Amino acid sequence: MNTLTIIAVASGGALGATLRLLINGFVNKYVPHTLPFGTLTVNLLGSLIIGMLFAYFHFNTHLSPHLKTFMVTGILGALTTYSTFAIESFFLLESGQYGHAFANMALNLFGTILLAGIGYIMVLNLAK
């Protein structure tokens, strides 16, 4: 890993995190919600964008790896890690690895929820 890669990720990450804050805030302010639609919006948007970018990269192999890292790991990584999970699951499905795809989806969905709950409960109990 070199300095340019680190700068690409850091600058993209700053942009992605800022976009997440703005989009999340906007959606939660203007869309009546009983679900976290701000988070859903950034996850869906990030998933759409990563799919579009990977398709674009497929046809444009001459692009700088630093530009790709800036956009995918930097911006989308800070906007949402869900986009990475989505494209990885799609690639598993596309390649016919259905068992692996569904295991990946189930483990990511239920595992993250379970661990978020465990972490939440741990901190609540430690704070008592």
TrEMBL record:
Keyword terms of this UniProt record: Cell inner membrane, Cell membrane, Ion channel, Ion transport, Membrane, Metal-binding, Sodium, Transmembrane, Transmembrane helix, Transport
Keyword Cell wall biogenesis/degradation listed: no
Main location: membrane
TM helices/strands, residue ranges: 40-59, 71-93, 105-127
Domain of life from the UniProt record: Bacteria
GO biological process: cellular detoxification of fluoride
GO molecular function: fluoride channel activity; metal ion binding
A single Gene Ontology CC term: plasma membrane
Topology class, membrane: Multi-pass membrane protein
Reaction catalysed by this enzyme: fluoride(in) = fluoride(out)
Binding site for Na(+): 77, 80
Residues annotated as signal peptide: none
Membrane recorded as keyword: yes
Activity modulation notes: Na(+) is not transported, but it plays an essential structural role and its presence is essential for fluoride channel function.
Annotated family: Belongs to the fluoride channel Fluc/FEX (TC 1.A.43) family.
Role this protein plays: Fluoride-specific ion channel. Important for reducing fluoride concentration in the cell, thus reducing its toxicity.
HAMAP family found in the cross-reference section: FluC
UniProt name for this protein: Fluoride-specific ion channel FluC
Organism: Sulfurovum indicum
